[in-house]
């Protein structure tokens, strides 16, 4: 057996990484180090220094005199161990032991949290490596060997997960709690879990306590005793008087504001109900853990769990400055994100290892072979995920071929991977590479990565699916004309974005008397074409939503259906599901009718057309110049009919909106950033776009339709209706927002949604001269809002108060209006169809159908009219009719629908993540093209180490870290929460920590000479030219006018640099320089620096 000496630098590296990564602070470091060293030495039988000597050297010099910081701890311990080992000159390690220790050290080192700019950290690591001898790089490579005979000697770094039985018992007794695991994107060692009934998230701090859980896992958490709880952030004055922010960087909680979707509000579903479990397993990979059933046991069991939550709440109230801490004891359900990891392979380090390996073994350069024990490090692009180890021999052949050719460009390419295993003996999870996505600095590979990361289907529709579609040309069948209500003689039209092709809703209005308007919402009858359990239905459930990422669209349904025979295109007979109301001049609904219809849209209006009509800019004389001339109108109607209808709908919509907000609805205003694209699909500018009256017109009637559908299906099928609820806000976060507003002289009442809306309206008037601050307040007012979610009514049968929608202030709500792009709407259509058919069955069973003509049969309603006949629904005949209709239309039962609703919510979140990631990608591409963007920013949070800023021009938040910066003096005034930054020319600022961690001033501030202002300032435009330029909306149509609004390099004097010393307080306005970060081998990000001017730098 060959042996190696354990060199001093290897001991330094091993102990340094062990101490600095396994322990979060100096106290834990002191407590842990000796056991770590003992465990390390015990894994190598040949490592046998005398026990008395080891104890003497370790304990007196280290444990009895603990150092102040982990860095000192690392330095002290490595020297102690070197001294210990140096007393045994004959100490020699077998090669497998050295490889194991090196691999273990590297596995620990990759867990290092990144607290500064990643690009600069990479440079510093490169500089340090260049100063070391070539042999040192061998011990720092991201490759390790595992010997099967040595596996029993490996240390287990994690405690075993509890068994299913133990978890169930602990959940029942309140000894553990079920929660989702969420990781802080700024510090992966911090994670949080929200326990139902506990007002504060529980902190899971450190690798050991997280116990192999990853972002999105459903875990069992055991809360630690009070003595181990941590101090709440901000309670010690580290981050005072800041705008309320999240402890972890989770998705901002959205509020329901638009029932019309229009490519903005997209939800997903999954496979056929009878195959739901199997399809979920297929889509998300196998789950090695058994499922944990819901606990609905006896009242004593529920009381135990409730008492445990009450005790935690009592301790929180008694110690408001403390945050509960806990640990993960089991993974109940694995996150789907485990199967959709995107990252980079660290192949350059692997090449370094191969060079050293070939020198040692004297192998030929051309004879590269891979062993079963070689691993390459995978660095995920998502900072919430740990680094991973990938077996070289299991890599795809295309990657192994390039490795043999020493192709280092692999490191610049994104790879798709999945986590295979994370055992107790491995500090890092083991992953498997699926395929290469492409160069990370290009848009298309990044889009592919976004879609893969969110498990969004990109495959073409199969021939089996396409065979379910009717042949073209298609016409409305005769039997449908006979059985449906014919509305082709009613002036009906669509209102959509100008480039929209999937038109799934239309509007109509008629004045039937002096005080009554008959308003119709007509939705494409997609359920007529998408039949239950057919291939098309299964595919639609799997895709479940049309995903729009600016210029990329992935449809839920084939184009023939979504853009042709199912779309409500003008001048064609189309099948629809209609809800028609009779509304009086006070906005009250006096009657309604719901049923299947045949309609013919007379024209397609854009939002801008409708806005021009509302504003009085459009009449018959100029319509032809805007694309909807007389030749495009159906022969039965004229332009005057459309204009009159739009004006009537606008007046009715205003009444409905006023009533809705009087009833307590909440609207959190926010402008949307949209991009302008050139003919190549590259963004060259952006602008803010706000909702106009035309948007609200459509929104009001879509919201009314969704509310009506929810009312009908929940009454007809109280145990199996798919509704959408929005819980009340997080009260702690709402109180924090209220306190912040009060501190800055803004009074806000959060006692109800109505009062909150009124308060925000008054604040808007107060801040009419500071719209940026109002936008910030609106953004943070949405933070306490919880996510709206689909649910099955049967799951909350005894808690009907929980069915309500907080932001809309309605007791019942669902999604009905977007069946071409949202599968839940198709399910709601089927449930509505079942209720309508049950009415006919009931009439037939009661012998009433023969006495009615067709018109009477259509208008005689028991379950869908404004007056619900509860006696009929609960009668024997009514129950039989409803059950038979539900079976015919395949309405899922309570048990299945609960799982379906949960999957809908998962897919909703994935769709939102994809859209947000796509938006960030195009923003990055825009900054990459501009190189530097100068803008004003508002300070949201402030402390001695970093500040959080809001850039209104881009509607994003960033952080600027100024801790341990060469040449920068920091003065933090605690009492006034004021920060003073100044240049320190002659000496380093006195900061704690190693000098090697200090960063250059250029990392924090872009400092220019006042003489160079005219040549170095880069301006970002935010206005739009006329003449054909369009906004990049959901469909992402290229723009006809690619000329940039502002040329880079030309100054317009909008934003001037600040000067040193810089004094900053909360809500101060400061100039910043933004730039694109990453691209080739690095994750994409947007960097922010202070924009400063100085003669002395």
Automatic annotation (TrEMBL):
It comes from Tetracentron sinense. Its EC number is 3.1.13.-. It is found in: Cytoplasm; Cytoplasm, P-body. The keyword DNA repair does not apply. This is DIS3-like exonuclease 2. Its cofactor is Mg(2+); Mn(2+). One of its GO terms (cellular component) is P-body. Residues 484-838 form the RNB domain. Residues 109-134 are annotated as: Disordered. Residues 109-119 have a biased composition (Basic and acidic residues). The record marks 504 as: Important for catalytic activity.
């Amino acid at each position: 057996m060959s042996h190696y000496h354990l060199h001093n630098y290897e001991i330094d590296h091993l102990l340094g990484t062990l101490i600095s990564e396994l322990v979060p602070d100096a106290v834990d470091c002191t407590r842990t180090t000796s056991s770590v060293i003992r465990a390390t030495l015990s894994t190598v039988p040949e490592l046998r220094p005398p026990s008395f000597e080891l104890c003497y050297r370790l304990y007196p010099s280290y444990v009895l005199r603990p150092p102040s910081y982990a860095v000192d701890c690392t330095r002290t311990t490595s020297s102690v161990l070197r001294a210990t080992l140096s007393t045994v000159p004959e100490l020699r390690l077998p090669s497998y032991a050295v490889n194991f220790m090196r691999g273990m050290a590297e596995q620990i080192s990759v867990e290092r949290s990144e607290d500064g700019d990643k690009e600069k950290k990479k440079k510093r690591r490169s500089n340090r490596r260049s100063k070391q001898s070539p042999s040192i790089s061998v011990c720092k490579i991201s490759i390790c060997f595992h010997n099967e005979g040595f596996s029993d000697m490996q240390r287990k770094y994690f405690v075993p997960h509890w068994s299913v039985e133990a978890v169930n018992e602990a959940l029942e007794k309140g000894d553990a709690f079920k929660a989702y695991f969420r990781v802080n994107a700024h510090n992966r060692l911090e994670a949080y879990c929200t326990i139902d009934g506990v007002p504060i998230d529980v902190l899971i701090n450190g690798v050991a306590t997280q116990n192999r859980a990853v972002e999105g896992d459903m875990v069992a958490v055991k809360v630690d005793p009070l003595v181990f709880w941590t101090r709440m952030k901000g309670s010690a004055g580290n981050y005072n008087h800041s705008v309320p922010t999240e402890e972890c960087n989770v998705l901002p909680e959205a509020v329901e504001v638009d029932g019309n979707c229009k490519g903005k509000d997209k939800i997903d579903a999954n496979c056929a109900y009878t195959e739901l479990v199997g399809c979920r397993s297929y889509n998300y990979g196998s789950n090695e853990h058994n499922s944990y059933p819901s606990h609905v046991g006896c009242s004593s069991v529920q009381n135990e769990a409730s008492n445990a939550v009450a005790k935690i709440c009592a301790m929180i109230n008694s110690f408001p400055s403390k945050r509960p801490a806990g640990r993960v004891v089991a993974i109940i359900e694995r996150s789907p994100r485990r199967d959709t990891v995107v990252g980079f392979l660290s192949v350059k380090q692997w090449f370094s290892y191969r060079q050293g390996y070939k020198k040692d073994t004297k192998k030929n350069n051309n004879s590269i072979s891979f062993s079963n024990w070689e691993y390459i490090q995978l660095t995920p692009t998502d900072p919430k995920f740990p680094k991973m180890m990938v077996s070289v021999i299991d890599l795809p052949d295309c990657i192994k071929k390039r490795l043999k050719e020493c192709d280092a460009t692999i490191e610049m390419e994104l790879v798709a991977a999945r986590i295979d295993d994370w055992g107790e003996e491995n500090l890092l999870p083991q992953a498997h590479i699926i395929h290469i996505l492409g160069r990370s600095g290009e848009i298309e590979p990044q889009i592919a990565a976004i879609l893969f990361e969110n498990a969004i289907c990109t495959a073409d529709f199969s021939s089996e699916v396409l065979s379910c579609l009717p042949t073209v040309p298609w016409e409305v069948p005769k039997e449908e004309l006979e059985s449906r209500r014919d509305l082709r003689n009613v002036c009906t039209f669509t209102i959509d974005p100008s480039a929209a092709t999937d038109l799934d809703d239309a509007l109509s209005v008629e004045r039937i008397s002096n005080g009554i308007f008959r308003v119709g919402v007509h939705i494409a009858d997609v359920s007529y074409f998408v039949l239950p359990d057919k291939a098309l239905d299964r595919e639609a459930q799997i895709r479940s939503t049309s995903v729009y990422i600016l210029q990329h669209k992935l449809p839920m349904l084939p184009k023939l259906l979504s853009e042709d025979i199912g779309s409500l295109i003008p001048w064609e007979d189309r099948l629809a599901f209609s809800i028609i109301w009779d509304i009086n001049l006070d906005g009250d609904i006096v009657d309604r009718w719901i049923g299947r219809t045949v309609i013919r849209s007379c024209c397609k209006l854009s939002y801008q057309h409708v806005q021009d009509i509302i504003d009085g800019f459009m009449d018959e004389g100029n319509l032809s110049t805007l694309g909807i001339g007389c030749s495009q109108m159906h022969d039965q109607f004229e332009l005057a009919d459309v204009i009159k209808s739009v004006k009537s709908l606008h007046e009715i919509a205003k009444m409905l909106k006023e009533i809705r907000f009087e009833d307590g609805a909440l609207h959190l205003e926010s402008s949307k950033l949209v991009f302008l694209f050139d003919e190549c699909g590259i963004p060259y500018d952006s602008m803010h776009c706000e909702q106009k009256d035309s948007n609200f017109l459509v929104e009001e009637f879509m919201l009314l339709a969704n509310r009506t559908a929810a009312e009908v299906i929940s009454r007809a099928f109280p145990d199996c209706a798919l509704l959408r609820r929005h819980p009340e806000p997080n009260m702690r976060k709402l109180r924090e927002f209220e306190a912040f507003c009060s501190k800055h002289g803004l009074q806000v009442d959060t006692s109800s949604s109505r009062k909150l809306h009124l308060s925000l309206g008054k604040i808007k008037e107060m801040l009419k001269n500071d719209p940026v601050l109002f936008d910030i307040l609106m953004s943070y007012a949405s933070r306490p809002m919880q996510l709206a979610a689909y649910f099955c009514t049967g799951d909350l049968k005894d808690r009907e108060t929980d069915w309500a929608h907080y932001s809309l202030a309605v007791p019942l709500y669902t999604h009905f209006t977007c069946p071409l792009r949202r599968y839940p709407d198709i399910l709601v259509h089927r449930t509505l169809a079942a209720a309508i058919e049950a009415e006919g069955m009931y009439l037939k069973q009661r012998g009433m159908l023969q006495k009615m003509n067709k018109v009477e049969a259509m208008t005689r309603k028991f379950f869908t009219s404004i007056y619900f006949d509860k006696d009929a629904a609960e009668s024997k005949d009514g129950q039989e009719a409803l059950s038979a209709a539900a079976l015919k239309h395949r309405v899922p039962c309570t048990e299945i629908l609960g799982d379906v609703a949960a999957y809908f919510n998962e897919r909703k979140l994935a769709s939102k993540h994809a859209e947000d990631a796509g938006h960030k990608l195009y923003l990055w591409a825009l900054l990459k093209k501009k190189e530097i963007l100068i803008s004003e920013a508002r300070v949201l949070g402030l402390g001695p180490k970093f500040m959080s800023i809001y850039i209104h021009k881009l509607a994003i938040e960033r952080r600027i870290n100024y801790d341990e910066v060469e040449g920068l003096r920091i003065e933090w005034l605690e009492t006034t929460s004021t920060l003073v930054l100044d240049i320190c020319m002659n000496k380093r600022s006195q900061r704690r920590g190693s000098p090697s961690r200090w960063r250059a001033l250029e990392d924090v501030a872009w400092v220019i000479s006042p003489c160079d202002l005219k040549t170095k300032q880069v301006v970002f435009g935010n206005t739009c030219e006329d003449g054909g330029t369009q906004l990049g909306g959901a469909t992402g149509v290229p723009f006809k006018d690619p000329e940039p609004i502002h040329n880079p390099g030309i100054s317009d004097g909008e934003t001037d640099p600040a000067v040193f010393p810089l004094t900053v307080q909360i809500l101060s306005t400061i100039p910043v320089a933004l730039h694109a970060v990453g691209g080739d081998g690095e994750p994409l990000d947007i960097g922010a620096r202070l924009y400063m001017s100085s003669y002395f730098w």
